[in-house]
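Archive transcription. Copying these from loose printouts into the bound notebook so they stop getting lost. Printout 1 of 2:
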Amino acid sequence: MTGQVVLLLRALHVCGLILSVCGSPALHLPRQQGPANPVPVVGAHRSVHADALHRHLQVWVCQLDHLKLYTDYVLNVTSVSAQGNSTRLTSFMVEDIVKPDSPVELRVSPGGPRKLVVEWSPPPTWSNLDVFPLKYRLRYRWSNRPRNHTVQLGPYESTRVALGGLVPGRAYLFQVCAMELLDLGQCSEWSPPVEMVLPSRRH
């Protein structure tokens, strides 16, 4: 049953579907506990038929307090039923959820036939770029059409990209967002759009 319970919990976490939730008393992690001393957590799951599972699901919810950032922990989940006990160990690390501010000073200039060069500056509120570098994502579209083209940029630390294959005489809208290099946290909001018309070819 433990495997089934764990899979159900994962499905709830990924899909965000919580139909019926029962909460257990919050568990407070003693301050002296650490990676070398796993904290036991006992969870109970009420048996239900498969066809009724989507309508009625009981899940124990446990809260762990006083966890330290960037520290490895081992979670011990034990399922108790009439058939016996079953235990599953899961390791995890507590990470801060970071979301950079949007890049600034977005600039677009001609880069040759059918090309534009897009440049920007990192968000000024993001300190220690040498220690915590950012990566960027660019999106652009024709100004009169809603469909965006998104480009994952590299090398990751670069704040400049040349785009080719564009249509002369067309007006384009460009935006860029920033994210921590190792995908810790969330991507920033998109920067305000900047419009640029690709110069027409000279005859």
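Printout 2 of 2:
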Amino acid sequence: MPSQTAVLTLTAVAAAIVGIGAGVAAHATIGGTETPQVAARITTGGAITPHATAAAVVKANGTVVRSTGVTAVRKIATGQYCVDIEPNIDATKTIPVATKMWGAPWNSTVLAYSGHSACGAGRHIFVGTGYTTGGAHDVPFHLVVP
């Protein structure tokens, strides 16, 4: 006889699969397979992020792989980046989320802060990267501004 935990886990997985199927069916019924249309935005590398104000995939050296709503990324020091966002986005009112990119060292960490003075005021987000063992280090990252 399966344990209660196994039954609950299988029930949760089944519910998730049904939910995903319903979401796909609803999307197909509402508008087909096309990506929802958004106002013209600054994009690099073909990024499509219809539900994010801005987003970027950034290499450790500060090079932008792809982005939307981001006008530039400046690497100002080891493990320190300033992400410039479109003028219509007030960075001081956002809650940016950053995470390390796949392939980054397991002991690396990434932090995002929209009020850091190193990047200037207004439309800049500071991203700091390093290792949990101490010190700033260049780490590739993803940044999303909801």
